[in-house]
Amino acid sequence: GTKNVPAVMFAAHMDTVGPGTGKKAVVDGDMIRSDGSTVLGGDDVSGIVCILEALRTIKEKGIEHGDIQVVFTVAEEGGLYGAKNLDYSRIYAKYGFVMDSNGPIGTVAVKAPSQDKIFVTVEGKSAHAGLSPEKGVDAIRIAASAISGMKLGRIDHETTANIGVIKGGRETNIVCDRVEIMGEARSRDERKLEEQTRHMRERFEQAAAEFGGKIDFRAERLYPSFNIPDDAPIMDILRKAAEDAGVPLVTEETGGGSDTNIFNGKGIQSVDVSTGMQKVHSTEECISISDMVKAAGFVVSIIRSVS
Questions:
Q1: Mean pLDDT of all residues in the chain?
Q2: 93 and 178 both lie in a single domain
Q3: Which residue among 43, 44, 76, 77 is the active-site one?
Q4: How far apart are CA 295 and CA 103, in angstroms?
Q5: The pTM is what?
Q6: Is residue 175 part of a domain?
Q7: Any catalytic annotation for residue 243?
Q8: Looking at the structure, do residues 108 and 242 belong to the same domain, yes or no?
């Protein structure tokens, strides 16, 4: 760039969720949707399109700007692996705008949670369920007892928890000796996340002790939370950009994780920005052409507003 202003980064991810093989987009007036057999892929191809269109626009119109870095990541949907493994020695942008959110154009996510992914193995003791069940230790019973006494779902306005996968058992005539469980806990408050993860561990430990089994509990921090205050410099840029683009600036909190969490964790002050995508992660996914045009215009306005 030729303008002496802080460098900015625009990012989007190139992967999509399934079912995604053989996508066929259907244009219905202003709306682009899938044919119903796959996702559309607007999450996050729309982000890529908006960034490229904005870059084309500033080049064609000769709009003065500072340094712009563009990052297109891989494997966001599977665990933010692209952002986690990016070579950050090559990134010098001070502010990041991740085009990977829904809502009206001008909507930005300024708060998002941390997530712990939880892996539990419950070990009991097998026995014949008809001849000598008292000799066994039922791993399914331990898991059921632990989960039934666990705080799950919506814990508070910042915190959620879920048990999503349970695998165990071989035959109905064998007392189950092993159950594998996967779950998660999320919170926008780090202390609350630690408390929820500890609570889940303690419930499994208590149930195992009660019924004579053993547990192996492992929690993996997938990504950090972020919280962009209203007086942060990036918010000044967004307010100016919204005014320039003629769209209302709407800030929101999200319960999901994205590349934005990783970028903030690496010291790049970043927000999620809406492209107008709708009904994402479903075969009903759609996006309007006019919203993508507005989103690309908002990117141009962000570039203009950096000072």
A1: 97
A2: no
A3: 76
A4: 11
A5: 0.90
A6: yes
A7: no
A8: yes
Are 103 and 25 in a shared domain?
Answer: yes
Catalytic residue, chosen from 15, 189, 205, 244, is 15
pLDDT over 90 (residue 307)? no
Q: Please state the separation of Cα 170 from the chain's center in Å.
A: 35
Do 183 and 234 share a domain, yes or no? no
Q: Which of 223, 252, 284 is the last residue of a domain?
A: 223
Count of beta carbons in the 10 Å neighbourhood of residue 50: 29
Q: Rounded distance, CA 100 to CA 258, Å?
A: 8
**Is the same domain home to 123 and 217?**
yes
The pLDDT value recorded for residue 1 is 87
Buried b (16+ CB within 10 A) or exposed e, 141-158: bbbebbbeebeeeebeeb
Q: Is the pLDDT of residue 78 over 90?
A: no
28: annotated active-site residue: no
The per-residue DSSP string of the chain comes to: --S-S--EEEEEE---PSS-TT--EEEETTEEEE-SSS---HHHHHHHHHHHHHHHHHHHHT-----EEEEEES-STTTSHHHHTS-GGG---SEEEEEEEESSTTEEEEEE-EEEEEEEEEE-B--BTTT-GGG-B-HHHHHHHHHHTS--EEEETTEEEEEEEEEE-S-TTB---EEEEEEEEEESSHHHHHHHHHHHHHHHHHHHHHHT-EEEEEEEEEE--EE--TTSHHHHHHHHHHHHHT---EEEE-SS--HHHHHHHTT-EEEEEEEEEBSTTSTT-EEEHHHHHHHHHHHHHHHHH--
Domain boundaries, position 86 = 8-112+225-305
Instruction: Please state, in angstroms and rounded to a whole number, the distance separating the CA atoms of residues 253 and 269.
Output: 16
CATH number of residue 252's parent domain: 3.40.630.10
pLDDT above 90 as % of the chain: 98
